[in-house]
Amino acid sequence: MNLYQCSNPISDNFLPKYESRKTIEVKKKVLIFTDKVTNLLLKRLVYLIGSVKFNVKISHNKLLPLLEDHQKGSFALIVFTKLDIYLHLDKHAKERLKEYCLNYKVGLLIFVQNEENIPITKLSEYPLFFATNNHISNYRVNASSPVLRITKPGYHVFNNTSSKWTLFHSKDPSFEPISVTNCENRKAKDTCEDGLVYAAVMRDKGLHDGIEKIYFNDKITFWVHKLIILDAISYLSRSSLLLPLERYILVDIDDIFLANSPLKMKKQDVKELVNFQNRIRKENVVENFTFNLGFSGKYYRQGNINEMEGDEFLLASRHNFTWFDHTWSHVQPHKLNFSSLVREMLVNKKFAKIHDLPLYTNYSVAPHHSGVYPVHDDLYEAWRQVWGLDVTSTEEYPNLYPAKNRKGFIYKGIKVLPRQTCNLFTHTNFFDTFPGGRTKLDNSIFGGDLFMTVITNIVTIFMTHLSNYGSDRLALYTFTNLFNFIKCWTNLKMMTVEPSKLADVYFNFYPNEILPLWTNPCNNKRHLEIWSGQKTCKRLPHLIVVGPQKTGTTALYTFLNLHPQIKSNFQSNKTFEEVQFFTDKNYVNGIDWYMNHFPFPPSESTILFEKSANYFTEAKAPLQIHTLLPDTKIICILINPSQRAYSWYQHAQSHKDEAALKHSFYDVITATNSSSDVHNLRNKCLLPGLYTSHLNKWKTHFNNSQLLIVDGENLVEDPISEMEKVQNFLKLQDKLDYSKLLKYNTKKGFFCPVTNGGKLKCLGSGKGRKYSPMDDKSKDFLKHFYKNSIEDLNDFLTNHGYSKPGWLIKEINDMNA
């Protein structure tokens, strides 16, 4: 069969086996057990699974610990990249694996690689045979297999192949082929038996041990196998890792009216555009398929006579399509301010009104992807004011490549969807000049990257250009073959819906993408090119004091500000010296908001810093900070957790917290079935002091040279020595002698900065306040509560080579006494 045609007699009668779901279970993972980091099959498998946004955990030698740590069955599927790994599990590991699979109804996906060299080898447990390094012919998919869902079976996919395959064979009723092929003997060393039909993919029903398995050979780049792998993941995970069968497709045509001669569409090109759209609808290839046209009105009727006629006929045919604003003069938004952008949009809006264009007023695309990401706030504000916009798209978030990592986000009420390319750009207009030639384009369409783009993306917004529909009409050729090929070989239902519906579908399925994850524009060449020249990454901090609260963070903030080489953020009217950007409340404001909290550094050697003591316990903060500021330094301050808990309670009392005023400290920390206000106060007292659980999150993203742990109690008693450690950590060119800048205040009971006039300038009355000692009952409770945490912290600091605070050494000695 020719791949470019569809003669599939089973297609119309084959139905998928189970319902689609509307959201993804983000907590479920695929565990891949492998023996080499550099394994090519592993890389390809991870790329495929990552393309559908399923979570992956890779392990090289820790199968048992991982299964023990995931008692709740968070692994929905277990994969072995080589049969040999599975066969050589020791008895205990196999028993634990079986127990896990049976308890949580998890199947196994096992790959057999040609280099494993197991000619006609039999599994020790079951009668399954393998034949390696074989030529094949007449490959076809088994229509009766319950595994198939996305994959639509047919008579055969190809007649023969020159590559060598590993094949499976068994007469045991537990085994059922998913795809079959003939094995051809071409050389004496071939291992197949004449006359037998072999399986290229084999299902083990689990009749012998209760565990369903699917065996694949290593032809993971074969497009049918990619489809079957996705089906196998859904089937073996009992649908917990399941993609819907619907695919929402929007084809944007940017640069309407814009292309230069001779690339603009002529009248006949527009006719073909309409005919193509009508044909796709009539044949129900893509339900309600409609091209979405992005126009720049300034360029209307510019060109030769035939091109102007094409522009006029396009407007005459306008009601066949939907239209969106692409700015009047195709300007790059990041180069304009708010008022200039409003003028651009208003002129284009007037053009649309004059010519009665059927607009998607809630959708727009910025030329060159400028201003969408990295965010240019003026663009978002102009969009909302002029168009009432609530949906846009870009290929730049978080990065252009790899395309599988593109995501969506919502910013200032505007939903930003990921946008995909189809190998057609403004310069790809002729077959004979297409990079790699027509063969490369065909390979992408018929089972290659473009085909897999639709397979792996629930919502696909394709970016194309006006010029792709003139000349050789590469876009029409591409989409004709792509859509028909998908209809022929898959059970996917393709449809076009309006952008607001696309956004609803996307964020319902991927709700974890709603909040953006800000990256540093200066770390990406493309992003830097489409970022406003009025902005600079120099206003981002080099140091962050992350807390936890009530450990002396304000004192450290004050001491750092004494150094002329160090500059802090501007004070806030609401949060005072703290920015608190990396919290859900402020993170959504974007990096422009964050940078505006910092001064322009007076010199290259200036270190900008901020301290927000609530970062320490914020679950997302370590990742968010590292993503935006991968090279920044982090300071944590630790005091005895019992004292920190008591200090927080006293802080709550001083701020008239009702729970703290009504209940004693002991009642709060020992509360179980309590009211929400007492429960919240208890958590704020106790949970930050579980230091190691939080430090592990910071260590995931920051190495030893980036993370300093300050002894908070020594910072009070001997700040001069502690600030010496801080200066060494920051590698300051000119160190300060803090013994001349800090003096002990007997009345306050702590060190205070010395002013130029020689007077002491201590922190306000809210800092270092005096209160009665903790009662013995509370001390005993906290000693027991934090015992394991103290030991964990001691081990953590030892294992990572950190010096230990004096209070921790004392606690450990007391335990061992």
TrEMBL record:
**UniProt keyword terms in alphabetical order:** Disulfide bond, Glycoprotein, Golgi apparatus, Hydrolase, Membrane, Multifunctional enzyme, Signal-anchor, Transferase, Transmembrane, Transmembrane helix
- Entry's EC annotation: 2.8.2.8
Question: Which cysteine pairs are joined by S-S bonds?
Answer: 752-762
Q: Where is the Sulfotransferase domain?
A: 541-754
- The record places the active site at 550
Q: Which GO terms describe its cellular component?
A: Golgi apparatus; Golgi membrane
Bilayer topology term: Single-pass type II membrane protein
The protein's location, in the record's own words, is:
Golgi apparatus membrane
Heparan sulfate-N-deacetylase N-terminal domain boundaries: 27-236
Question: Any idea which positions bind 3'-phosphoadenylyl sulfate?
Answer: 647, 767-771
Domain Heparan sulphate-N-deacetylase deacetylase: from-to ranges: 246-451
Annotated metabolic or biological route of this protein: Glycan metabolism; heparin biosynthesis; Glycan metabolism; heparan sulfate biosynthesis
Q: Name one GO molecular function term.
A: heparan sulfate N-sulfotransferase activity
Q: Does the keyword DNA repair apply?
A: no
Superkingdom field: Eukaryota
Q: Name one GO biological process term.
A: heparan sulfate proteoglycan biosynthetic process
Give the family this protein belongs to, as stated in its UniProt record.
Answer: Belongs to the sulfotransferase 1 family. NDST subfamily.
Q: Which PANTHER family match?
A: BIFUNCTIONAL HEPARAN SULFATE N-DEACETYLASE_N-SULFOTRANSFERASE, HEPARAN SULFATE SULFOTRANSFERASE
Q: State what protein this is by name.
A: [heparan sulfate]-glucosamine N-sulfotransferase
**Organism taxonomic ancestry:** Eukaryota, Metazoa, Spiralia, Lophotrochozoa, Annelida
